[in-house]
Design a protein that fits this description.
This protein is an alpha/beta fold. The protein folds into 2 domains: 2-171, Alpha/beta knot (3-Layer(aba) Sandwich); 177-259, tRNA(m1g37)methyltransferase, domain 2 (Trp Operon Repressor, Chain A, Orthogonal Bundle). The chain has helices spanning 21-27, 64-81, 105-112, 129-134, 151-162, 203-206, 210-228, 240-252, and strands at 2-7, 32-37, 50-52, 60-62, 93-102, 116-121, 126-127, 138-141, 195-196, 199-200. Helix 3 crosses helix 5 (151-162) and helix 7 (210-228) packs across helix 8 (240-252). The structure holds adenine (ADE). The site of adenine has 12 residues, from strand 5.
């Protein structure tokens, strides 16, 4: 996947280049990440990227011209240089903004199917509305809080998408049990030692009985979801057995209907 990011702070994206899942994906050529400075697309002596808001009010607004020109230049470059350029014609152009649709695992999965994506990081008090109207195909928020810019949000989105790309995680199915992929929160995990400060690893995990382990994990995932994020259970498809289990847990109101 090719990811292009328009930002006033391209150097912030250096921190993704560290060893680890993302670094390996970059090195292995599974991902190409380019951060472009919006300021490079200004034409005036002082490289001005923002201006006062029409109608008054505090704060500066990012001007439309450098953002439009940056998007056009990046697209022109991709169409000219990338093999299979036509795969990029439908590439999403995403503005990171607290006004966007809430980011989710489902959106990460959708985005991971594209050959590329172009992310625009907002700054200051906002972005000229014409960028929203005419340039972007999507607006995404990573949560109901306001960051000082879209850069950290872009990194969150990029990380969540890249780890879903085939070959990025060690084994193809290691993202399959993730919280939110199954629609449930993930079950508790343990590693050695078997006993630590008086707390034991649950017997069933030591049993070597894979069917029992799977059953325990599934029930724990349901229990954890019920305890922490009960609203998620309304959206997930559960078997009638699982529904009964949820009902029992709710009745007991302790989440301890299962052992
Ligand atoms: N820019 C500022 N705050 C943001 C948020 N919560 N999500 C996405 N982009 C942002």
């Amino acid at each position: 996947m090719r990811i292009d990011i328009l930002t006033l702070f391209p150097e912030m994206f250096q921190c993704l280049m560290v060893p680890g899942i993302f670094g390996r994906a970059l090195e292995g050529g599974l991902v190409k990440l380019k951060a472009h400075n919006i300021r490079d697309y200004t034409h005036d002596k002082h490289h001005v990227v923002d201006d006062y808001a029409y109608g008054g009010g505090a704060g500066m607004i990012l001007k439309p011209e450098p953002i439009f020109e940056a998007v056009e230049a990046v697209k022109a470059h991709i169409y000219k240089e990338e093999p299979g350029w036509d795969k990029f014609v439908e590439m999403p152009v995403i503005l990171l903004t607290p006004q966007g649709r809430p980011f989710s695992q489902q959106i990460a999965v959708e985005l991971s199917k594209h050959a590329g994506m172009l992310l625009i990081c907002g700054r200051y008090e906002g972005v000229d509305e014409r960028v929203r109207q005419r340039l972007v195909t999507d607006e995404i928020s990573i949560g109901d809080y306001v960051l000082s810019g879209g850069e950290l949000a872009a990194m969150v989105l990029v990380d969540a998408v890249v780890r879903l790309l085939p070959g990025v995680l060690g084994s193809e199915d290691s993202a399959q049990d993730d919280s939110y992929t199954t629609g449930l929160l993930e079950y508790p995990q343990y590693t050695r030692p078997v006993e630590y400060r008086g707390e034991m690893v649950p017997e069933v995990l030591l049993s070597g009985n894979h069917a029992e382990v799977d059953r325990w994990r599934h029930e724990q995932a349901i229990r954890r979801t019920l305890e922490r994020r009960p609203e998620l259970l309304d959206k997930v498809e559960l078997s009638s057995q699982d529904r009964e289990l949820v009902d029992r847990m709710k009745k007991l109101n302790t989440g301890s209907a299962i052992k």
